[in-house]
Amino acid sequence: QISARVPVPPGPMVPKTTRATFTFRISAEETNGAVDRVCVEFDVAVHDTPYCDTFLVREKLMLAPHPEGGTRITKAFGVIFLKWTFVQGMVRSSAEASQRKSAERLLEFFKTR
Prior knowledge:
The protein has one helix at residues 88-111, and strands spanning 2-7, 17-31, 34-46, 55-65, 71-81. The chain is an alpha+beta fold. The protein has a five-stranded antiparallel sheet, with helices on one face. A hairpin with a 2-residue loop joins β2 and β3. The longest helix has 24 residues, at 88-111. The model has no long low-confidence stretch (mean pLDDT 92).
């Protein structure tokens, strides 16, 4: 588990930064003693934003060999609601926009490596 202060996208009644807790799970799949796939899954819970006690964001990165060489990287995410809130649609759309930007930055990072 890692605690950090992270920037928050602009919005009504939202601070510029918030405390966040990242909980990581890392696993590897093996075949005949060789690692075929690595999965990095983590939950992000924020602490200082409106309705932050109602949800968390779960991200998953899968790294596997690409059939034509190199590495295939797959990114997925989901918003997990811990309790009902009337702003679920707004939370989900904000998370999707944030994840889209995150995926673009991740792609650029790996392209330069």
